[in-house]
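Morning!

This is the sequence you dropped in the shared folder:
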Amino acid sequence: QVQLVESGGGLVQPGGSLRLSCAASGSIFSIYAMGWYRQAPGKQRELVATITSGGSTNYADSVKGRFTISRDNAKNTVYLQMNSLKPEDTAVYYCNVRGRNTQQYDFASWGRGTQVTVSS
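The structure's back. Tokens below.
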């Protein structure tokens, strides 16, 4: 069993910043990739950013240059620094972790989500 605990969401004005964190714990043998997705009301869940164990990153075009994903492998934690936030960034942000558990089975886990609201 792998658990994800997200934190850092909230209400921020346009142009502001927030930092999301997601810590993975449990029966983890190794982690391949960690990432953030978001879902706005009435829309499908979409990829925001991902990062591999080697540090390779991938961003949605809509957040390039504004968001930065990073990870602390020792803590099994992924971060999302969000700058220059826009109202269209308003969504529930979900953490996703893919890896292998201690029973040597691949897993993919989702966090419960954290609300980010960008509004004046």
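Headline: The mean pLDDT is 96.

More detail when I'm at my desk.
O.
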